[in-house]
Amino acid sequence: MTAIGNTLPQSVLDAMNPKGATAQSTAAEAQDRFLTLLVTQMKNQDPLNPMDNAQVTSQLAQLSTVTGIDKLNATVESLMGSYQSSQSLQAAALIGKGVLAPGNSTGLSEKQALMGVEFPSDVDGATITIKDASGNVVQTIELQEQTAGSKPFIWNGKKADGTDAPNGTYTFDVKATFAGKPVETTELQFGMVATVSTAAGQSVKLNVPGLGELELSDIRQYL
To answer: Is the same domain home to 28 and 128?
Structure first.
């Protein structure tokens, strides 16, 4: 748009730059100021050098685009708020529920320890190695063919020599192969959802003792 410099009345200049104005002005306010400027410029244009219609049309198109983006942003923010509310309700229903999430620790109690593994693809077989707090191997579990996905497993607390392992915390790792080649796996730790944390503008957090704060996307399986 052709600049009109000092031909604009002071009242229009004030309208274009009101005291206390910030970049957070709404699109509607920006549109009103633009139209005021456009009309004033047309009234004060040089008859011998009139405004270029194509340029005016381009300016109006740009203004329309900015207005549309502003409305789109408002819609997205509204949808995000609704999505977070939905997530909060979903997460609240998980309090007291068991979950499997990335981790390699398991607790043995009453001859039972729950653990899991995530296979990114089918495997020919896998080996679960369980170690005590000192790092000593207490049991090795061989698994047959497994399909891709998250799988829970229960250790009966038996050591390799057939005796019962004492209650406590153990660690484990999983090795898998397919067609003779190693397959990267993810060990999954069991935990119970204790509480749910929500905050404006932030994702919902699940507080799981032993695993810490988890995103809903961290959960591989609900039990």
So the answer is: no
Q: Are 173 and 133 in contact (CB under 8 A)?
A: no
Specify the pTM. Answer: 0.63
Mean pLDDT for back-to-back runs of 10 residues, the chain (223 residues):
45 49 56 70 68 65 68 65 65 89 96 96 97 96 95 96 96 96 97 86 85 92 91
| Measured CA distances, 4 to 49, 50, 143, 144 (Å) | 12, 12, 80, 81
Same domain? 109 vs 133: yes
What span, in angstroms and rounded, lies between the C-alpha atoms of 148 and 83? 30
CB 205 within 8 A of CB 196: yes
